[in-house]
Amino acid sequence: MTTLLQVEQLSAGYGEAVVLNDISLSLGEGETLALLGRNGTGKTTLMDTLAGATRQHGGQIFLGGQALHTLPSHERAAAGIGWVPQERNIFKSLTVQENLTAVQRPGRHWHGSRAWTPERVYELFPRLAERKTNLGTQLSGGEQQMLAVGRALVLNPRLLLLDEPLEGLAPIIVEELLRAIARITREEGLSAIIVEQHPQAILKISHRAVVLDHGRVVHASDADTLRENPDLLDSLLGVARKL
Ligand SMILES: Nc1ncnc2c1ncn2[C@@H]1O[C@H](COP(=O)(O)OP(=O)(O)OP(=O)(O)O)[C@@H](O)[C@H]1O
């Protein structure tokens, strides 16, 4: 398995405050990582740090062998990071179609995979196809999340970062998004890191799992180890909860 992402002794935070301490992890090409932990343990900070949106205090990040830690955020996007932050950064004053075409990088795709285009995004999310001419403000929360994922896909990333993509969505939309995420990752082989508060659904489609507590890695294994051992999962998240 070729290593896609290599994180070494990463520490980062906001201003002088250090939130992440000595984080090391790696992810293979085509693998999905479930990033777990109770509230406030640093999951979002880690995603933001990979995307270049925090203050890095130490350590290194490599994507496909290329050093990311020296690059500003927009150059990390060009290097292959597709970031879907918690706040779903879509352009609300543009239509669905404009949101997708504004950021599209049509010429780029990796390892012979099929390039993502707005048309492919519509095929993945038929609800968006019906809303092509709607403004971002006219979309439901679920549709906004689909559009946020679609915007990251048309950048044709090497690594997709999904921060709580299911948060606050109706069960039927959660099912649709989970199916789409499984298709993108499991079937199409796009590498991803997914932060989620409800771990079972994400562990089912992930290869690897990492649990954070107090900004440190307290568990790293294959996803099945945690999925098949709910007591271990509870104790990892439960221990964190008591602290
Ligand atoms: N912009 C910020 N400035 C300063 N501190 C912050 C900022 N954002 C988060 N923090 C702090 O960093 C720590 C980790 O927060 P983070 O949001 O990364 O955790 P999380 O595991 O993603 O939690 P959640 O599940 O609630 O999103 C917390 O102590 C939080 O207060």
TrEMBL record:
Family matches, as Gene3D superfamilies: P-loop containing nucleotide triphosphate hydrolases (3.40.50.300)
One of the record's GO molecular function terms: branched-chain amino acid transmembrane transporter activity
SMART domains, alphabetized: AAA (SM00382)
Pfam families in the cross-refs: ABC_tran
UniProtKB keywords: Amino-acid transport, ATP-binding, Cell membrane, Membrane, Nucleotide-binding, Transport
Alphabetized PANTHER family for the sequence: ABC TRANSPORTER ATP-BINDING PROTEIN, HIGH-AFFINITY BRANCHED-CHAIN AMINO ACID TRANSPORT ATP-BINDING PROTEIN LIVF
Protein's name in the database: ABC transporter ATP-binding protein
The organism of origin for this protein: Limnohabitans planktonicus II-D5
